[in-house]
Specification:
Elements lengths: L5 E6 L1 E2 L11 H16 L3 H14 L4 H36 L3 H14 L4 H36 L3 H14 L4 H36 L3 H14 L4 H32 L3 H14 L4 H113 L3 H12 L6 H37 L3 H14 L4 H37 L3 H13 L6 H15 L3 E2 L5 E3 L5 E4 L11 E9 L6 E9 L2 E10 L6 E5 L5 H5 L4 E6 L4 E10 L2
Helix pairs in contact: 1-2, 2-3, 3-4, 4-5, 5-6, 6-7, 7-8, 8-9, 9-10, 10-11, 11-12, 12-13, 13-14, 14-15, 15-16, 16-17
Length: 668
């Protein structure tokens, strides 16, 4: 018998195998419902859920089983939420305790105890904090006062006094991190303050130096940087106003001088002189502006003289141009007279040449007629030879079964000899062959279309696409096949898009659960993603990775070899209690094979200690003959965490089962 490893996932209770359970008799249904009701009454909702699910597999539409399953799921959700709240407060308390935030930790522990008042671990943690807080209460007031005074002094930038207060607090609680942090912060702020003062003085000095060099923009920029350090410094504010006034005057003067210099460079001397005079109005007695004005006066006089000479020269040039134009017009009139005489002589010569050409044309026409008659005889011989050449080529293609090319070649004969008997007969023969081929193609088309339509009805769009493509091979360009192919492709793409969206949701949730170390839930989502059949390796890779994690972190291997469990006969395994620090991440892993394949049945897994049973769950053994691996996060059950459990017991209800592995592991 084959033995292939499959993976079954348990989430609070076992998930039934995907292939379903074959119909069983009413007695089995009633038995499952009774077991479910018993478990429900004893508040073992996880086991009750599995019994109701198995009953629904036998009677999928049974309203009572569905109602009881819904009630059970609500109870499981309520218990799960209650435990999650407990663990949330427990984790928060442990984290705060590790940070020495004792009052906050105690508040979280008290919230956890409100849910499970008898929890020994939480109770012990809470009492330890209360004892410690009572012991340190006498020191607390002095410590708090020193910290408060230090903070107040630090806020007032009295750094040395603040450091002394923080050091006092540190001497009270040497292990407390806060005084050390506040001392370091005070020293850091003191150094920052000193650095700020040094930078402030440096910026002010640099501004003064820039102002001396009339770089008022730079000076103002430096002073604004200084104000960012100490915004309320009045001296710097006044300096900025003073430098701004000097800057505005200097900018006006520089602008006028720049414009005047530009005009001077372009020899606009009069406009330049006006700008230099405007600059003197801004800075009275400016030496540069006065010097440039003195330079401009002789240049302006020279420029005026040159302008008068230019005007006189232009007038003389105009007179000479008028005389030249009169001479040009006289010359053009003489040239026109000579051209008319030359044209008359040309026309007489052309008339003589035309007469001689007519005589030559008559001679050539007689020669051409004789040549035409000879050419027609030669052309007919050539036409017959061409017809035979085409027929030979067409026959060769026909013999090679290149029917399309052969038909085209026979049709070429008609361009030379319309109605040629040989070509007509061969074309008819080819058309007959084409008719046979078309009939066969039509049959293939009909078969492919019928198959494709069946696949469409079954919503197997991928196979429908394949069959429509075969139909188009048989009948290229067919409108119906083309339209239906497009629809099949659209539906297939839509289906693949939906499957991809489902895949992404399962993967995202699986990754989220994996990150949260809820490995059973992670495997559930990865398995659902794999079942979509997209061929992605990631889900299987992650399931294998989780298997490896669980195998590498196993705590107890409770059996060393496979054994057969007789129906209704318990098998107990004992072990030392798992350390409380890792209990919440614990898993129970079972590998089992149905020895009577064909129907599913329950296996009860219980755990407890010397004082008795503390909890458990139910596995639905798969109806398959293949070995399956069942993974259950036992750490999610509060009694596994809160009690020192020392045994696990298996009971197979009604049928025998082979168990090859029972392990306790953890997720990290």
């Amino acid at each position: 018998m084959k033995k292939r490893i499959l993976f079954g996932i348990l989430f609070g209770a076992a998930v039934l195998c995907s292939t379903g359970v074959q119909a069983q008799n009413a007695e089995s249904y009633e038995s499952l419902m009774r077991s479910g009701n018993t478990k429900f009454a004893s508040k073992d909702y996880i086991s009750a859920k599995t019994y109701y699910e198995m009953a629904l597999k036998l009677k999928p539409k049974d309203t009572e089983a569905k109602k009881k399953l819904d009630e059970t799921l609500v109870k499981i959700q309520q218990d799960s939420e209650r435990q999650e709240v407990f663990y949330a407060h427990l984790d928060a308390g442990d984290a705060l305790n590790a940070q020495n935030r004792y009052e906050e930790a105690l508040a979280e522990y008290d919230k956890a105890l409100a849910i499970f008042p008898e929890d020994k671990y939480v109770g012990g943690q809470a009492q330890a904090i209360r004892d410690m807080l009572k012991e340190r209460q006498d020191k607390q007031d002095s410590y708090d006062r020193a910290i408060a005074q230090g903070n107040e002094l630090l806020e007032g930038e009295n750094f040395d006094a603040a450091i002394m207060q923080f050091e006092t607090a540190q001497s009270i609680f040497p292990e407390d991190k806060l005084p050390k942090e506040r001392i370091a912060e005070a020293k850091r702020l003191q150094q920052l303050y000193n650095d700020k003062v040094t930078l402030f003085n440096k910026l002010v000095e640099e501004a003064n130096q820039l102002a001396l060099r009339k770089n008022f923009d730079g000076a103002i920029a430096k002073l604004n940087q200084a104000l960012e350090l100490f915004p309320n410094d009045a001296t710097v504010q006044n300096q900025i106003q003073s430098y701004q006034g000097s800057k505005d005057l200097n900018d006006r003067y520089n602008s006028l001088i720049a414009e005047a210099d530009q005009l001077y460079e372009t020899k606009a001397y009069k406009e330049a002189k006006s700008k230099y005079q405007s600059a003197l109005n801004v800075v009275a007695g400016d030496a540069y502006a006065m010097e440039m004005i003195s330079r401009l006066d002789p240049l302006i006089a020279q420029q005026d003289a040159e302008e008068a000479a230019r005007i006189a020269a232009e007038q003389e040039a105009a007179r000479l141009a008028a005389e030249a134009e009169a001479a040009r017009l006289a010359a053009e009139a003489e040239a026109a007279r000579l051209a008319a005489e030359a044209e008359a002589a040309r026309i007489a010569a052309e008339q003589e040449a035309a007469r001689l050409a007519a005589e030559e044309a008559a001679r050539i026409a007689a020669e051409q007629e004789a040549a035409r008659l000879a050419a027609e005889a030669a052309a007919e011989a050539e036409r017959q030879a061409k017809i035979q050449e085409i027929l030979d080529a067409a026959n060769a293609l026909f013999n090679e079964e290149k029917l399309v090319e052969a038909k085209q070649k026979y049709q070429e004969v008609f361009t030379i000899d319309e109605g040629n008997a040989t070509a007509t007969a061969k074309i008819n023969e080819i058309d007959g062959i084409f008719a046979q081929i078309a009939a066969a193609a039509q049959q293939r088309y009909d078969e492919a279309m019928a198959a494709a339509n069946r696949f469409m009805n079954d919503e197997n769009y991928r196979e429908a696409v394949s069959q429509y493509n075969l139909a188009l091979v048989a009948k290229p360009g067919d409108a119906e096949a083309t339209e239906k192919l497009a629809e099949a492709q659209r539906l297939d793409n839509q289906k693949m898009t939906e499957l991809r969206a489902q895949y992404n949701r399962f993967i995202k949730e699986g990754d989220k659960q994996y990150a949260a170390k809820a490995l059973d839930k992670a495997v559930e989502n990865y398995a659902k993603a794999e079942e979509l059949g997209l061929g992605e390796p990631y889900p299987i890779d992650m399931i294998n990775k989780i298997n490896k994690i669980i195998e590498e972190n196993k705590l107890y291997e409770l059996n060393s070899e496979a054994f057969t469990m007789t129906a209704n006969t318990p098998k107990r395994f004992t072990f030392n209690p798992v350390d409380v620090a890792s209990r919440r991440s614990n898993y129970i892993i079972l590998k089992a094979r149905n020895l009577t394949p064909g129907k599913s049945f329950p296996m009860i897994v219980s755990f407890g200690s010397e004082s008795g049973k503390n909890g458990g769950f139910v596995i639905a053994i798969s109806e398959s003959e293949d070995e399956k691996t069942y993974l259950f996060r036992i750490g999610s059950q509060y009694k596994w965490f809160s009690e020192n459990n020392t045994w696990i017991e298996l009971i197979s209800e009604n049928d025998d089962v082979e168990v090859s592995m029972v392990e306790i592991s953890r997720s990290n």
